[in-house]
């Protein structure tokens, strides 16, 4: 969800955008670019979490098989 909110340039999230004073001199386009950069980073992190969660789920199911259980 954060990726979506950064992509629509939510003003509430301005504290999480890495900007400098010089970024405000050129107009809002540079700030919008920074918002989109942070948005892409959020989408990449969400994708990695989904991949690792799927891998963890597969490993958990493999470990629950009867042939791997210790008697």
TrEMBL record:
This is Ribonuclease K. It is found in: Membrane. PANTHER family: RIBONUCLEASE KAPPA. It is a multi-pass membrane protein. Belongs to the RNase K family. The chain crosses the membrane at residues 38-58. The keyword Transmembrane helix applies. Keywords: Membrane, Transmembrane, Transmembrane helix. One of its GO terms (molecular function) is RNA endonuclease activity. GO terms for cellular component: membrane.
């Amino acid at each position: 969800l954060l990726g979506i909110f950064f992509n629509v340039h939510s003003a509430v999230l301005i504290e999480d955008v890495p900007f400098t004073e010089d970024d405000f001199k050129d107009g809002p386009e540079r700030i919008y670019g920074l918002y989109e950069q942070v948005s892409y980073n959020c989408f990449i992190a969400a994708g990695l979490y989904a991949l690792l969660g799927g891998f963890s789920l597969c490993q958990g199911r493999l470990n629950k098989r009867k042939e791997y259980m210790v008697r």
